[in-house]
């Protein structure tokens, strides 16, 4: 099955260009990344429950995310700093996983209106090195990201 989220990874580069079109108005797509309760919903999956320990959706804000398994064990933690938070336009932030060999990455999210009922997310993710990026791509990264985007489509469609 072809993934709806498209990932462009050029050889010998340390970044990814990611895009996904949604059957959601621009405002709803942005809200999926701006409201803690919505982020927790689409970040939760059949294996873990996501919780934002901290979320300051603003310029110079920060966030902390953790996911727990069914037994309540923390299985994933990440955090970062929000550098830009421009309503319905873009979010620029860092992302760093705790207890991981992967370093800090810079993520630039651009939200684009296609029609009144459709929108597009363009992500530019920059890693510390090409090697680090290639290690991430060896994981089920593309499938996981596409599944998360599918959940955004599902959850946010309920709010239309």
Short structural description:
With 160 residues, the chain is α+β, with helices and mostly antiparallel strands. Helices cover 27% and strands 40% of the residues.
Task: Describe the 3D structure.
- The protein is α+β, with helices and mostly antiparallel strands.
- 27% of the residues lie in helices and 40% in strands.
- It has helices at residues 26-34, 36-43, 130-138, 141-157, and strands at 6-8, 15-22, 49-55, 61-68, 74-86, 90-97, 105-113, 119-126.
- It has an 8-stranded antiparallel sheet with strand order 1-2-8-7-6-5-4-3, with helices on one face.
- A hairpin with a 7-residue loop joins strand 6 (90-97) and strand 7.
- The longest helix is centred in the last third of the chain and has 17 residues, at 141-157.
- The radius of gyration is 15 Å and the shape is globular.
- The model has no long low-confidence stretch (mean pLDDT 96).
Layout of helices and strands:
Elements: E1 6-8, E2 15-22, H1 26-34, H2 36-43, E3 49-55, E4 61-68, E5 74-86, E6 90-97, E7 105-113, E8 119-126, H3 130-138, H4 141-157
Antiparallel strand pairs: 1-2, 2-8, 3-4, 4-5, 5-6, 6-7, 7-8
Helix pairs in contact: 1-2, 2-4
How far apart the termini lie comes to: 27 Å
Helicity, in percent?
A: 25-40%
Structural class category: alpha+beta
- Spatial order of strands in the largest sheet: 1-2-8-7-6-5-4-3
Number of helices: 4
How would you spell out the order of helices and strands? EEHHEEEEEEHH
Radius of gyration: 15 Å
Largest sheet: 8 strands, antiparallel
Compute the average pLDDT: 96
Number of strands: 8
Shape: globular
Q: Hey, roughly how much beta strand do the residues contain?
A: 35-45%
Which stretches of 5+ consecutive residues score pLDDT under 50?
none
